[in-house]
Structure prediction request, 338 residues.
Amino acid sequence: MRILVIGGTWFLGKCIAEGALARGWSVTTFNRGRSGRDVDGVEPVHGDRTAPEDLERLARSGPWDAVIDTSSSDFAPRDVLLATTVLREAARRWVHISTVSVYQGWPHERLTDESALLECPADADETVGYTGPDGSPTHYGFQKAGGERAVTDVFGDTAVLLRPGVILGPGEYVGRLPWWLRRAERGGRILAPAPAEQRIQPVDVRDVAEFALDQAASETSGGYNVTHPQGMTFADFLRECLSVTGGAGKPVWVEPAVLTEHGVKQWTELPLWRTHAGVWAVDSSRAAAAGLRCRPLAETIRDTWAWLAADGRPVDHPRWAAHGIGPEKEEKILASLG
Ligand SMILES: NC(=O)c1ccc[n+]([C@@H]2O[C@H](COP(=O)([O-])OP(=O)(O)OC[C@H]3O[C@@H](n4cnc5c(N)ncnc54)[C@H](OP(=O)(O)O)[C@@H]3O)[C@@H](O)[C@H]2O)c1
Prediction:
């Protein structure tokens, strides 16, 4: 197999490039050379995906059996359309990394692979879409929905759309699991979002990567939700964080209404906490039937801690800094409980 990874130096794209090399595939990566560094063993091509001349130069390094596009999170549908159009003759298949945010019902409703999508044209610019007052739908979701349309318009039944929920694992630059791990390490009374038995279903970056590679090598098409089928409860999640870090801490489970009253921001101040009914109710049975294998989340937690502990530094990324409640605010809320 000969594949092109758009991105390939950062979190998911890096895992995909490493996984493909481990399978003995030949891998070209395309990025600007700013985030991370090219994985040893790939054929790197440097350029900007928004520049037609860079994409045309890239196309001359083909052909490929498949393109895996991991880098579309900050790009408008028309940028995705540009890349798919310029690379159409150079690639047989296109595996696109999308998101569950493309669904109209996310995060309010239970979702399947057939749920209704947000509407956004394939040639939309970055102005199309909006974020609702309660944080849903999102401008990001509209843009990613338009990106999906750009892929299917050009690659038709050789297009695969992967829709992960939250992705965690070694290299996670967003800072969700890293924050909980550092908080667990610090110990003491830990502000935790009730109910403790709420199941969460993040997926390991390495499992998304393997599934993307399987899809690159298959003849399938269409959309797949990529979420952890079993997940784990928040209580087990915090227990594992305490166990791997050796933190002497005890979660104090606080009702959502109390957290809201104190102005705790969902999703960021207490990462992975969100009260909407559908946020952790995304069915991924189509992916499971197509071979998605999700490791136990305890392994994700353990390996992320090993990565954090070995590296020791926060990742220099704006999203990292936006995660986690400050110690004073946390202490104030805990003190108010008596
Ligand atoms: N993280 C999550 O929880 C989550 C959840 C659901 C879906 N997703 C989706 O998963 C995908 C992967 O996300 P990610 O966070 O691993 O990667 P990402 O931040 O979307 O992409 C980063 C990669 O793209 C390259 N890149 C950025 N701008 C570029 C440009 N103009 N031209 C060429 N390459 C460019 C970067 O290298 P350079 O900067 O060096 O160019 C880097 O290799 C995204 O599509 C995201 O929407 C993520």
The CA atoms of residues 1 and 24 lie 8 Å apart. The chain has a mean pLDDT of 96. The chain has two domains: 2-168+202-226, 176-199+232-276+296-336. DSSP finds twelve helices and 15 strands in the chain.
